Fold:
Amino acid sequence: MAEHGAPRTLPLVMEPPKGRGKPPRHLADLDEAGRKALLEEMGLPGFRAAQLSTHYFGRLVHDPAEMTDLPAAQRADLVTALLPDLMSPIRSQSADKGTTVKTLWKLFDGALVESVLMRYTDRATICISSQAGCGMACPFCATGQGGLQRNMSTAEIVHQVVVGARAMANGDVAGGPGRLSNVVFMGMGEPLANYNAVIGAVRRLTDPAPAGLGLSARHVTVSTVGLVPRMKQLADEGIPVTLALSLHAPDDELRNELVPINTRFSVAETVDAAYEYFEKTGRRVSIEYAMMRDINDQAWRADLLADVLIERGGRHWVHINPIPLNEVRGSRFTRSRDEDMAEFVRRLEAKGISTSMRDTRGSDIDAACGQLAASG
Ligand code: SAH
Structure:
């Protein structure tokens, strides 16, 4: 037991600061049995839980005023029990001809988080936050600079998606009414450092309505810096979500600097855990690699990246997503030259690894990957 001196390692699960109260309990925090039991404990009819869930997840209605089938006498109690206000929009900004929409949310305690809805020709994806702030301190990421404020609750995480799904269904996003199909945990926070709430959210997103939103698990991507024990735990959950690993460097020397948790879990251990995820779930792992000029974009590093992955499990267990770095104001990290990015991709492909450069939707409204800083 580490009784003397400072702990040698960072705590794996960051505890939120105490004393500010908990986010309001909401039906999205509970499974169906839990919702029913809660109403019954309050002396309300249990079957109303399914009715509320159908409104919320099935019809995407979250304003109680629109739930005209609720008995007037019980409405207030039902709403207090299961549909409290979770967050209010502070500001919305759009880009890419209205197909990218970023929303800044204020949570019950004033904490600020952001989500970004992106519509493509064949799908619509929402990028959501799992923590207010982030404790991982990656020096090139805007969110990482402010530290962690607190973990979000399951309902706070899920609600971002429900609001996005409703916006799509209503035709509020350029392109007419459509369906939200994909969710990526690539907004603020490290999802695996808020493990239980994130797993609860993944279950709500993938459970069929009215228990949940009924999205395909394959269309849900959990992105991580590489919290190895949590990656192993995720592999055992039996939910085939897509795992994205933010690698950013194939060697410990550089990765220790770019992704500080690497000093605790080395590249080899992290890549091993990603491979184990592939073996257990059959899901190809995405490798995220933000392209930073003269930092991690050398041709030899592309070769080394391919070698490290191939050595672990061959060519077909990963897909590499290089991302042009989104430049964060005041940061010393800049975006790679186009010719260096092209050569990097060429080298990976030459080694037979499937690679696709990620786009940078929303960069002009600071809505692109790693730019979410919620400055209020
Ligand atoms: N904590 C999770 C989710 C964070 S955001 C994780 O690290 O995976 C999702 C992705 O955006 C991560 O791969 C992250 O490293 C990357 N990212 C952060 N800052 C970026 C920036 N300025 N430009 C491009 N990608 C960035």
Q: What stands out?
A: The chain has ten helices and eleven strands. Confidence is low (pLDDT under 50) at residues 1-11.
